[in-house]
Amino acid sequence: MRTSPVQEHPGAAHGGIARTVLVAMVAALGGFLFGYDTAVINGAVAAVRDTFHASPFVLGLSVAAALLGSAVGAWFAGPLANRLGRIRVMVIAAAFFTVSAVGSALAFAIWDLASWRFIGGMGVGAASVIAPAYIAEISPARVRGRLGSLQQLAIVSGIFVALLVDYALATAAGGAMRDLWFGLPAWRWMFFSLLVPAVAYGSLALLIPESPRYLVASGRLAEARGVLEEYVGGDPDEKIREIQGTLAAARRTRLSDLRGPRLGLLPIVWVGILLSVFQQFVGINVIFYYSSVLWQAVGFSEADALKITVITSVTNIMTTLIAIATIDRIGRKPLLLIGSTGMVITLGVMSYSFGSAPIIAGKPVLQGAMSLVALLAANLYVVFFGLSWGPVVWVLLGEMFNNRIRAQALAVAAAAQWLANFVVSTTFPTLQQVGLWFAYGLYTLFAFLSFLFVTKAVRETKGRELEEM
Predict the structure, then answer these.
(1) Residues 119, 100 contacting (CB under 8 angstroms)
(2) Is residue 388 one of the residues assigned to a domain?
(3) 369: how many CB neighbours lie within 10 A of its CB?
(4) pLDDT, tens digit, for every residue of 331-353?
């Protein structure tokens, strides 16, 4: 089997790769919306709490409602993608984002806001499944890791833009609770801002080609040949035969296809699920959902807390760029091990910093050098996550499953990821009441366990064709 077919097709080696990058970027817009939708709540959390007089538990549920929707969207995205195609599911996800933006902005109660956030979450979940699967299926093997990393780059870029918009709107109004335009407070305009990328995603998705593997599975061989020739390179007829070989079962994927000897599932499916769970249980989204509240809780002003959050998101983008540059050289597994090691150290430092802070008016307050230590540790933690577990998990989920079960297995793994995200996000306000040192101590433990898991269970996929999985 040829391992680098792109070298046989000049167009694929030059113009074809450029076209593939552009198509992958459009697909990754789902990741941008994923990041934007989940992070836009950051600047609005305190205002939502005060507007609707929400308790910590109810506030946590309203923030995490989008994550439950994400689990639902991820669960159904795989079967829908096999039935309708990858592109149509992208358009459906864009519609969910659009509806959620308007509904959240005009919410009249905390439960109403949670309902619209749930709908947006379904779009997030669908996008989280479709983008990595589509990018993996349309990319040449030798650059698949880098193109797959575009999903994480888009996610962190969406987070950055959402936080920047939050900061700009809050600053323009003089606070998230203050009225900005048409008698609506700034926090409502934060949700309205989601409309712009949502409409762009739905429009651009209609302009990119369908996945060649979906086309082959649907019997549309002429279309598949054209897409393979233009975007993947190599001998398209040989590639079609390879795809047909892996799809020989010819029946629609069902959950029963994932059954195996270990606790009811195939071992590879459990690896995907646990990768997803550990990615969330190290606590990364606490930084992006609650960081403005977190830093205010330890003595920073609202404006400074929002600035810190924006700086952290820039750090995340820069480290994701490093991951894109190195993932196809270093490999997936080594990057995960490096990330786990760094997160154990930095999370441990954060836990110690919060635990040793003096209690003033019932809250820990970072003072002097310890505030700098905590800020450095938080940003270094984001560095280690951003160059490893952030992008690498999405790349692995897009390529570690064979063609026959990919969409369904990815849906299960992504649903597990969103449920884990829901658990972390819902419990953080309560854990904060126990003590920030305790919350970050738990995340440190899971970072250590993630190292052991990768060492034992994760296989390297660098440079392998999807048909070899």
Answers:
(1) yes
(2) yes
(3) 9
(4) 888 999 999 999 999 999 988 88
First to last CA, the chain: 13
- The CATH number of the domain holding residue 168 is 1.20.1250.20
DSSP code string of 93-139: HHHHHHHHHHHHHT--SHHHHHHHHHHHHHHHHHHHHHHHHHHHHHS
Least confident of 44-53, 224-233, 460-469: 460-469
For the chain, what's the residue count? 469
CA–CA separation, 324 vs 335, rounded Å? 11
Task: For residue 421, give its domain range.
Answer: 5-462
Extract the tokens encoding 41.
């709540």
Asked whether residue 469 is assigned to any structural domain, the reply reads: no
Residue 217 has what pLDDT? Answer: 76
Where do the H-state alpha helices sit in 139-235? 144-173, 186-192, 195-205, 212-217, 221-227
Crossing angle of helices 369-386 and 389-399, rounded to 10°:
20
| Residue indicated by tokens 């669960």 | 75
* Helix-then-strand count for the chain, H and E: 20, 4
- Structural domain total, the chain: 1
**CA nearest 42: which of 285, 304, 282, 363?**
285
CA neighbor of 204 nearest in space, from 275, 131, 153: 131
